Amino acid sequence: MSSAATRPADPDHLWSVDEHLEDILSTVRPLEPIELQLLDAQGCVLVDDVVVPVSLPPFDNSSMDGYAVRVTDVAGASEEFPAVLEVVGDVAAGAAEPVRVGPGQAARIMTGAPLPPGAEAVVPVEWTDGGLGAGPANGMRARSLAPEGAEGQVSVYHPVEARAHVRAEGSDVKAGDRALEAGTILGPPQIALLAAIGRGTVRVRPRPRVVVMSTGSELVQPGEELATGRIYDSNSFALTAAARDAGAIGYRVGAVADDAETLRSTIEDQLIRADLLVTTGGVSVGAYDVVKEALAYTGDADEAGGGVEFRKLAMQPGKPQGFGTIGPDFTPLLALPGNPVSSYVSFELFARPAIRALMGLKDVHRPRTRAVLRADQVLRSPEGRRQFLRGTYTDGEVTPVGGAGSHLVAALAHADALIVVPEDVDVVEPGTEVEVVLLG
Amino acid sequence: MSSAATRPADPDHLWSVDEHLEDILSTVRPLEPIELQLLDAQGCVLVDDVVVPVSLPPFDNSSMDGYAVRVTDVAGASEEFPAVLEVVGDVAAGAAEPVRVGPGQAARIMTGAPLPPGAEAVVPVEWTDGGLGAGPANGMRARSLAPEGAEGQVSVYHPVEARAHVRAEGSDVKAGDRALEAGTILGPPQIALLAAIGRGTVRVRPRPRVVVMSTGSELVQPGEELATGRIYDSNSFALTAAARDAGAIGYRVGAVADDAETLRSTIEDQLIRADLLVTTGGVSVGAYDVVKEALAYTGDADEAGGGVEFRKLAMQPGKPQGFGTIGPDFTPLLALPGNPVSSYVSFELFARPAIRALMGLKDVHRPRTRAVLRADQVLRSPEGRRQFLRGTYTDGEVTPVGGAGSHLVAALAHADALIVVPEDVDVVEPGTEVEVVLLG
């Protein structure tokens, strides 16, 4: 695993959003496959092609509740002149050795039951008297209430063609066919098919375990009392939820105080359950930016992992960012800025694609579209930086919500899109077409 | 709770898809609210408006790492003629009692830290020498490495206006504002806002617990050996996954044999953990249709629940359906047909909306759109029945996958849409516009 952190770093280099993302996606590798129970594999990516071991259906079977017959026995049958056949027994679904249907005979048969030997077609019960001798029937009486229904005579009022109401062996899929292709995401219908062909487990890439920790001595746990000068921790909640939303197993670590040693030991403790670490805060130029202080370790040969590099991005919000790998397994770590909007936007742009790359998904990005800007005034954006503003998208139009401030959580909670203002644009007029990331 | 099952039933009445759905949605009520931890409430619907208890930010604070100053002290400052101020200490984020900034003084301040008394604005560290006396600085040295940085002198090279780089108390949301409206679905940004205003728990409608059981003596558990005449159980897997996909907590019960007493006692056992029961199979006119036999109980005054009614729907696939309520809590039960495609389509059309109604969601249906039919031949549909064919949708076009057979699981696994052919249409020509349900 390589990382830009191993390359000679120019501290003054301003990284573009795309360069940073490319560095992340070229470092993060899909997780090793694991064999999972079907229902545990929901939402995961199939690693191998799955081949059908036994044809579906595995045997010719009835598509109706009715009577299995020989075609010649019911040729010309009508309501006026029914064909009267001897009922030789029941064929229920799951029957291992169905009765044999001889000339002049019929077997009562249920949907999905194997077509018995000798029979060529199925007459639906609605085309018979149901063996009750009382004219056209709507159905059969429950066997437990009328066990004698499997004996006696049945009057058939319609002819049938050979194979009528019979589902042929292999008409769904044939043994040897490819059921599902490697790379398929397993949703309910794919799980249906895997179960139908008898697969109890399946090899997939597992959901990544993402450990989220916020840093800052000012952070108070929601629900506790807010002391002077302090604020509630929201990042660890928001990003754990966002990790789950991206398909990961999210673990939230309570806020860590601004102390480099505490942070280092917390991260070391968490490595055991992390496929990806996400921190918030402490990445800027301040004297208390402990994530940077704790992780921006270079030149120590005893240090495991590729190292974490701290960068400035040509981006607003989200200018300061850290990325690299740590620990003996070179676990990727994203150090996001601490302002709530900065951390959320950074997560969407960098952590979500990383999670989806770990899952082995081909399409790691949120959908994007173009929309007409609806606004009362021009949008201003710092030149040379790609700006991501919060907005609401409806029917090809996007309206900004709140301002550009990276502390505006309320506006974020009412947005469903990010408006992208490119690096070379500093003013966007209302009515202009803009690029939009749909947060869906 | 009322159900059509309490109305006098005409067994020959052919129900439309819409009538059946309306009966379900008029019976199913949103679950009672529950107070949940924030991260447990992800994806749930907020029951009450949430009001902001304390303004955000709760106090004026710095948006940059830099120096808190008085405006007059830095008026006219330039690189040539810097303003030299006495550094009186650090103001870290979370500081409860920041130092006072007097005339000619500055306090080193971190992003998010409260603006200290006496100070009027913040000068970013990049506009100073960082207190190092060595010309323009890029940042501060980590406090643990250079604790003396909080003392001495700082040279400021730019003037600032009053309130520059200060986030005003309440500029995000003000105490008393409505943070979120009742009915909001809690995604990551909404969870961010709730945490930011100090809410550790929130009152939502919980995820419904959906118990899924398939019925049929022919069913074998995937992974086991397939005996003659038997097939693998796929419905219980597919529908448990579909229930989870709809937002529910899905519980899969292994396939139940075709025995009415066993089925009744299994259902009674499962009621304790069910907000909704979904069965597959045993609802048609056959002699072994035990779901119908076990549940179509009428006239017994000792029987709890409103009763389950079995119907014929003007629909393909999915003609036989059961719906009603059972047990002391009138738990809704959907009895779906047993063919894999029938049960899956029925789940999408009836069980998914029921689950989303239990969650209190306003929009319970899958999105629909119109698309041009791409096909080699005309589609044929039985007149008088609404047909749902499997298809793949791309860019305004839909292509059928597989045939109309309700046993075609493989085709279902490759579809992402249902093509709707109305009751009064029996032939659809290629190139025609059709209605499409997007399975997303």
UniProtKB/TrEMBL annotation, chains A, B:
The annotated pathway is:
Cofactor biosynthesis; molybdopterin biosynthesis
One Pfam short name: MoCF_biosynth
Q: Which GO terms describe its cellular component?
A: cytosol
What does the record give as the reaction this protein catalyses?
Answer: adenylyl-molybdopterin + molybdate = Mo-molybdopterin + AMP + H(+)
Against Gene3D superfamilies, the record matches this protein to: MoaB/Mog-like domain, MoeA, C-terminal, domain IV, Molybdopterin biosynthesis moea protein, domain 2, Molybdopterin biosynthesis moea protein, domain 3
Report the superkingdom from the record.
Answer: Bacteria
Q: Which residues form the MoaB/Mog domain?
A: 211-357
Catalytic activity, EC: 2.10.1.1
UniProt keyword terms in alphabetical order: Magnesium, Metal-binding, Molybdenum, Molybdenum cofactor biosynthesis, Transferase
The GO biological-process annotations, alphabetized, read as: Mo-molybdopterin cofactor biosynthetic process
- MF terms (GO), sorted A to Z: metal ion binding; molybdopterin molybdotransferase activity
Q: What class of enzyme is it?
A: transferase
Q: Does the keyword Transcription regulation apply?
A: no
What InterPro entries does this protein map onto? MoaB/Mog-like_dom_sf, MoaB/Mog_dom, MoeA-like, MoeA_C_domain_IV, MoeA_C_domain_IV_sf, MoeA_linker/N, MoeA_linker/N_sf
Needed co-factor(s): Mg(2+)
* Residue stretches spanning the membrane: none
Q: Does the keyword Transferase apply?
A: yes
In UniProt terms, what function does this protein have?
Catalyzes the insertion of molybdate into adenylated molybdopterin with the concomitant release of AMP.
Family assignment from sequence similarity: Belongs to the MoeA family.
Q: Which PANTHER family match?
A: GEPHYRIN (PTHR10192:SF5), MOLYBDOPTERIN BIOSYNTHESIS PROTEIN (PTHR10192)
Q: What is this protein called?
A: Molybdopterin molybdenumtransferase
The species is: Streptomyces pluripotens
Write the lineage as a comma-separated list.
Bacteria, Bacillati, Actinomycetota, Actinomycetes, Kitasatosporales
